Each structure stands twice: as structure tokens, then as C-alpha cells.
Amino acid sequence: MLSIKNIEVVYNDVILVLKGLSLEVQEGNIVCLLGSNGAGKTTTLKAISGLLRPDNGDITDGEILFMGTRIDRKDAAEIVKMGIFQVMEGRRVFKDLTVEENLIAGGYTRTKGEISEGIEKVYTYFPRLKERRKQLAGYMSGGEQQMLAIGRSLMAKPKLILMDEPSLGLSPLLVKEIFKIIKQLNEIEKTSILLVEQNANMALSFSHRGYIMENGRIVLDGDRDYLLANDDVKEFYLGVSSGKKSFRDVKHYRRRKRWLS
Amino acid sequence: MEFLTQIIIAGIVIGSIYSLVALGFTLIYKSTGIVNFAQGELLLVGAYVCLHLTVSYQIPFIFSFLITLIFMFFFGFLIERVFLRRMIGEPIISIIMLTIGLSSLLKSIVQIIWGTDTRTFPKIFSHEPVKIGFLNISMVYIFALISIAIFLGIFSYFFKTTKTGVAMRAVASDQQAALSMGIDVRRIFALSWAIAAIVSTVGGVLLGNINGINTSLSQFGLKVFPVVILGGLDSIIGAIVGGIIIGVLENIVGGYIDPLVGGGAKEVFPFVAMIIILLIKPYGLFGTVKVEKV
Ligand SMILES: Nc1ncnc2c1ncn2[C@@H]1O[C@H](COP(=O)(O)OP(=O)(O)O)[C@@H](O)[C@H]1O
Ligand SMILES: [Mg+2]
């Protein structure tokens, strides 16, 4: 349903961040995109959702197709209307709006009727949000804010949700809860999900497929079981091996990867 | 006692007009980050358009008022489209310069069309003051307070319950996040200008009915600064409360200190207050400390 073909992204006309990245999301799948800090994961999501422009970023090469239509020249609002919704890194709830107003904002592209239906649906997934519906979002805990951020995405009835590090800064227990809900959304709402994470172990176990990126490129991809069993993945992302790898080892790893492929 | 009460009532009326103008200013600042130095000129244009419709076309006041509001809505919208849209992403200082330029331009246009003499609205309200308890309040004050209350009611309904109103607050709260949910941020910018033009116009028309109008009316735009510094640059409630406080204090100073010093204290008071507040609290009395987007 989503297919990224060889895109290049440049910030401020000079900083080349994505260097020919390709990636596919099949309808109905949860696909995770893993990689260390600065690899370009957020940039990839923003390239899809049309949010690069405010950051002064540009797609300079390649193309992005969604349900067969090119979207890399469209603006953010059109892309939301087509059915892609990005849950941004750091939750980004509207702090001085109430929970319910946050949801209304999430349903901006929808009709009045769809908004009230949407709010009810969000409350069935997150009863806690219903209890706090009149509360300002800024006064909620990190976990509740993440639930609100995900709930807000449901309001737009997306076909594909892009999630940027939903587990960031949450306790292990909450992380589990959030991932369970992501799984539910995928199964019940039939929403496809592209999940960006640094928490590789958890993300992979909840995904159908995964991509691993380094320095603006995909270096490895495959289905869940393949990646979970892969020695390199174990070593670099799942923290199975002992000791931290140095940068030189990572470079070596990349060189080897290229030689392998 | 009687004197003080009369002063306070007049202060509340003028102060709530400050509130309206400050509301417009804050709206633009919150959603677009632009400091609008042309707020007073929006008031001026609105007041003259309404006067013109009422006097030259003999349209009954209430209708010319409504037509003016519609006209000013599009006028505000247009200013954003024509002048400010192409400035998105430019340095904030350039944008401020642009609004200063706009303020001079609008003021000159008004002077060219309508001249510089003071003009008055035809008497719509009887001069007989209404007796409420022991107070004598003039009709025009009552009309002003009621219309301001109605407008504030409409706006609070709009911002709290409509999708567009909530979206405007969302844009003010986090622009990129708002963009990510498909909110048309440019349209919201234009709408902020349109609404700011409307509220200023309401203020201008009311003032015109109270005191008559000439081009010095645009100085009301500068009064906005003490008001928002008191109320917090980014707080709508702050703008409303700040306006009334400044209006009342200013009138008290005018009533009790001006006779002692021979005038002028009233005009300068809000700015003295502003300087003192800034020295103590650089972000205003109720403003948030974080520096808003650039
Ligand atoms: N707005 C920006 N302007 C310039 N460089 C940026 C911008 N955003 C991100 N980058 C750079 O792009 C690279 C990838 O960033 P990002 O996509 O945020 O990585 P990740 O999400 O994987 O941590 C980093 O080197 C970062 O410094
Ligand atoms: Mg990131």
C-alpha cells in the first residue's frame, strides 16, 4: 500500500540525510523501522506525511506511492485526507487544549458526525481518556499523553498510521500496554502501521516485518522471525552480545552488509 | 463616591474596548507569532467604513454595522493573503517592519478618503441617561457593554466548540502537530487576521459612537501593548481582563491625578505601568515564560 522508492532527502539545501531509501508497507501489516539515533527514521516518516517542509527539508530524488498514487509532492493536509496519519515523536499533544478538544483537532479532516463517532471509539479503546475528557492535556502523565496522541490519530480514520517512537520515556509496563493497543488497532481497525522504534526487541516482536536503517539507508530487512534470528540484529539491536560496540565496529558491520547484498 | 462610580463605569466601557482590540492582537500573535502593529489601523478602517455606510448611504446603523463586520472579515483575510503569507519563514523583524508599514499605509488611505476632521455617528442613542439604582448610565455605554458581552460570548463559543475554533487554538499551541492532523495552517492564519479585524472594528465603531472618530483613533492600537503585557502576550483571558483593568485604572488616574498635574497623567499611565511590569516580569504578569516560535 505504501512504497518508497529510492528517496533522497536534503535539509536546508545542503544536508543530505536520506540517501536512496526504499521501503514497503503491505496492507494490514505492522512494519517496524529500526535504527539508532540520527539514522533518519523521523525524516523518513516526515517525508511520507509531508511534514518536511516546515523543517526546511526536501525530497530531492525518488518517489513515494500510496495506494498507487504519488504523494511526495502533496502537502500534509492532502496526505491526511488520503489516509496517512503521523503520530509525531514526543507525543505533541496540544497542552492547553482539553483531551476532547485534542480529539476534535485530530478529526479536523472529518465531518461533525464522524467526529462524535470517533470520540466514542477512542474512549472505548482508552477508557482513561474518557475519565479525563475535560482535563487539559498538558496536565496528564506521559502514558496518558501517548494514549491521547494515538487516540487523536484514530480520529482521522487513517488507513496507515506512522508512529514515531511511541515507547519513548515510558515505563516498561506502559510500553507493553501501548504496544498491545497498537496490535489491537491493527487487528480490529485493520489499520496498517509503520512503527519507528529504538526499542527493537519489543517493536520486532509486535511487527510482521522490519527494516533496519543506518545513516540514511536501509541495511537489512525481512520478516519478524528472520530478523529476530539474525546474528547481526541480535548483536547490534537486541543487545544480546556482551559489551557496547564501537563506532568502528558499526562501520565494519555496514561494510560487510553491503558486501553481503 | 458617585464620581468614583461614574469613573469606574466609564473605565470598564473603555477598558472592554481595549480588551477587544487586545483580543485581536493576541489572536494573531498566538497563531502566527506575528506582532501586529497595525491593530489600531484595523480599528480605524472599520470605524470609518461603518460611519461611511451609515452617513453617506443612510443605511440604518445596525445594518451598516453588520455589513462592516462582513467587509472587515474579508479585509483582514485579504491582508494576510496579500502581505503576510509571502512573509512566512522570513525573519521576525522583517515581518514586524511590514506590519508597521501597513499601519502607516492604512492610516494614510483613511486620511485620503475621509480627511482628518473628527466626525460623529448620527445620534442613535438618546442622551437621557438611564437610571439604574443610584447610577446614571448613558445608553451608549449600555449598548457598548452589551455588544461586547455578546461578541465575547460568540467568540468563546466559537473557540470552545467548533472544529475551526479548536483548530485555531491547536495551531497556536503546536503548529507542526496541527499540520500533522491535516489542519490547513495557512487558512487558520488568514482566519486569525479576519477575526482580529472584526473585533477591532467592533471596538472602533463603539468608540465612534461614544467619542466620535478621527484618525488619532488608531492610537488605540498602541494601548494594546500595556494591556497584553499586563495580561500575558499569549493569553486570551489575560487580554480581556488586562483591558478592563487598564481601562479602569487609567480613568481613575485621569479623574483624580490629572486635575492635580494639569492633564496628561491618564494618557501616560498605561505605558508607565507597562514599563514597571516589564522590569519586574519580562514576560508580562500572566504570560508564559517560554519564548514563542520564531
Ligand atoms: N530540521 C533539520 N535540519 C537539519 N538537519 C536535520 C533536521 N532534522 C534532522 N536532521 C538531521 O538528520 C539526521 C536524521 O535525523 P532524524 O531523522 O531525526 O533521525 P532519527 O529519527 O533516526 O533519530 C540527523 O543527523 C539530524 O541531525
Ligand atoms: Mg527520531
From TrEMBL, chain A:
Q: Which SMART domains match?
A: AAA
Pfam families per UniProt: ABC_tran
Q: Where are the transmembrane segments?
A: none
Alphabetical list of InterPro entries matching this protein: AAA+_ATPase (IPR003593), ABC_transporter-like_ATP-bd (IPR003439), ABC_transporter-like_CS (IPR017871), BCAA_Transport_ATP-bd_LivF (IPR052156), P-loop_NTPase (IPR027417)
**UniProt cross-references to Gene3D superfamilies, sorted A to Z:** P-loop containing nucleotide triphosphate hydrolases
Among SUPFAM superfamilies, the record links this protein to:
P-loop containing nucleoside triphosphate hydrolases (SSF52540)
Please cite one Gene Ontology biological process associated with this protein. Answer: L-amino acid transport
| Occurrences of domain ABC transporter (ranges) | 2-240
User: Which keywords does this chain's UniProt record carry?
Assistant: Amino-acid transport, ATP-binding, Nucleotide-binding, Transport
* GO MF: ATP binding; ATP hydrolysis activity; branched-chain amino acid transmembrane transporter activity
The record's family statement is:
Belongs to the ABC transporter superfamily.
Name-wise, this protein is ABC transporter ATP-binding protein
UniProtKB/TrEMBL annotation, chain B:
- Chain ranges passing through the membrane: 6-27, 61-79, 91-114, 134-159, 188-207, 227-248, 268-286
Similarity annotation: Belongs to the binding-protein-dependent transport system permease family. LivHM subfamily.
Q: Name one GO cellular component term.
A: plasma membrane
Q: Which residues form a coiled coil?
A: none
Q: One Pfam family for this entry, by name?
A: BPD_transp_2
Arranged from A to Z, the UniProt key words for this protein are: Amino-acid transport, Cell membrane, Membrane, Transmembrane, Transmembrane helix, Transport
Please state the protein's primary subcellular location.
membrane
- Listed GO MF terms: transmembrane transporter activity
Which biological processes are named by the entry's GO terms? amino acid transport
| Name of the protein this chain belongs to | Branched-chain amino acid ABC transporter permease
Q: Write down the membrane topology.
A: Multi-pass membrane protein
Localization annotation: Cell membrane
